[in-house]
Amino acid sequence: MTLVFDAYRAATSTHARTVALLCLLSLGCFLPGFFTLAPVDRDEARFVQSTRQMVETGDYIDIRFQDETRYKKPVGIYWLQAASVNLSGQGAHAPIWVYRIPSLLGAVAVVLLTYWTALALVSRESAVLAAALTAALLLLGVEARLARPMLCFAQASSRPLACWRDCTCVKTSATRSAWRPSSGLPARPAFSSKGRYGSWLWA
């Protein structure tokens, strides 16, 4: 047990090591089934098909599901999935896991956000525990394996937490100005990935 605790302390001795550890833990929780799981949610199939048509036609504004328009869903999630497909180099008929990459990255971001926010309240060890428990959440693991916009919204929702943390933790004006760019940026994807919820974050 002593060796385990010593290894844990060494792995969390700095923020960089802690972030790397949490990323590995998150991937360990989210990757099983990520590449092989067939579409099990009707919304996922619709998002993937709409993005596929977007990539095939090269029209990144007019969202369509087969012959019908799909303007009820904001365009941000389609852009993220289309970017993932284009970067993969496999074209519109890339395997389903390529379309899920934005969700996977969003899930990892949620875990890191939990750690980052918890540091304002508890010790680093407790913040790591909170992030690890977040990574083990069943619902988060499900959403990480689905090509849907929920986790993109969750990650973008960091703006209120970031602003709160700025007010709580930052003591000097120099440090405050360094934190603010990271506080405001996450709100922008929210507006285009989850509609009315994202627009609230601008308030």
Briefly characterize the structure.
With 203 residues, this protein is mainly alpha-helical. It contains twelve helices and two strands.
How is the secondary structure organized here?
Blueprint (H helix, E strand, L loop, with lengths): L1 H10 L3 H16 L11 H16 L6 E2 L2 E2 L6 H13 L7 H23 L5 H12 L2 H7 L5 H7 L1 H12 L3 H12 L2 H7 L1 H6 L3
Antiparallel strand pairs: 1-2
Give the tags:
elongated, mainly alpha, two-stranded antiparallel sheet, disordered C terminus, 203 residues
What is the mean pLDDT? 77
Give the overall shape, derived from the CA principal axes: elongated
Structural class: mainly alpha
Largest sheet: 2 strands, antiparallel
Stretches where pLDDT is under 50 for at least 5 consecutive residues are: 171-193, 195-203
Helical amount: 55-70%
Question: Count of helical segments?
Answer: 12
Order of helices and strands: HHHEEHHHHHHHHH
Report the count of strand segments: 2
Distance between the termini: 49 Å
Strand order of the largest sheet: 1-2
Strand content: under 5%
Radius of gyration: 19 Å
